[in-house]
Amino acid sequence: MAVVSTLPPIERRCKAIIFDLDDTLVPTSAIDKGAVAAAASLAASLDPTAVASAGGEEELIERFRALLKAEPFPPAVEDGPGGSATPVSVACWRTTLWARSIWPATSPSTAPPALPPSASDPTAEVVRCILLANGGAEGERGGDGTVAEDKVAWAKRVHDTWCEGRLSSFRFPAPVAGLVRELRGAGYALAVLTNGHSDVQRPKLAACGAADLFESQDRLVVAGDFPAMKPDPGVFLAAAAAAGVGVGDAIMVGDSLRCDVGGGNAAGCLATVWVKSCPSLAPPEPEQQQQQQQQQQQQGGGGGGGEGGGAAAAAAVAPATSFWDGAGDDQQTPTYSIDSVLDLWSVLRQLA
Ligand SMILES: [Mg+2]
């Protein structure tokens, strides 16, 4: 005879989990490192003289990274008199950043490049970068006052190599994909909340198949589509709504103390979880795998979607203390901190 419980179902406090993408679910920095190195190596093979005279490949990489950070897409575009701001494609903009890195301006007083009148193609701007790199020297110009076409093509090839390299490797590490499936199976509503412009973040989300893993494109929230990005509370409310819950029923999981933890706290998330590192794409060595399995067993599982486990689970969760985020001045306190997202079950058991 079947036993029917008259007890109400146990209400779970945490109903939804909002994940940051870059360096939380996907090791973006590590992937990008390889792609930038491949692009710099190509630049050095195409124009060895320019790259060597400007300090070599490492210096080129440093210059590119500094520009990418200082001048993210979309660039600040000044509205012309009576006209609308020039639309600039992400490929165009970033090709000019590569051109400025390969052929850096010799004069420190050189003004940053203006955007070309038609910014769907970076040719004009790349030409200007090369001329600036030579202080406007006639040596770079042909008889008709133009720059050799091959250099324009080189800049585009270097950009495309970087872009293709980062997107072709952009995927969820297998254990992370496994965790997301377990959480889905356990009934948690899931969403992704990522900072950045749509033209930058959507190709990354597509490359890693995030819509399939999270079961819907609607669960993927790109903060660049909103008036303000993380840590602005508005995008956390949107991500919680995408998961079908109020923000107070959701936890925020991310690697940025300022954006993910600070924003999640300000928005009123049930809890914020700071992840200290991102799982690597490389499969773990057999010995490392064995250690991880032992650790999971000691923590009470994590596999199979179960939420059981005991007091030992707390071992992987650091007590709430304050941290300083290198990216900002704000001191932010996560509710929990864990080594990587793979330790999330330990937090969920505490929140149950
Ligand atoms: Mg991140």
Task: Give a structural overview.
With 352 residues, this protein is α/β, with parallel strands linked by helices. It has two domains: 16-26 and 173-351, Rossmann fold, CATH 3.40.50.1000; 30-168, no CATH class. It has 13 helices and eight strands. It has helices at 28-46, 48-53, 57-70, 90-102, 123-133, 149-168, 174-185, 198-207, 210-213, 233-243, 257-267, 286-298, 344-351; strands spanning 16-19, 189-194, 220-222, 250-254, 271-275, 323-324, 331-332, 336-338. The strands form two sheets. It has a six-stranded parallel beta sheet with strand order 3-2-1-4-5-8, with helices on both faces. A two-stranded antiparallel ribbon has the order 6-7. Strand 6 and strand 7 form a beta hairpin. The two termini are 31 Å apart. The model is unreliable at 79-83, 299-315 and 319-329 (pLDDT under 50). Bound molecules: magnesium ion. The site of magnesium ion has 7 residues, from loops. Magnesium ion binds next to loops.
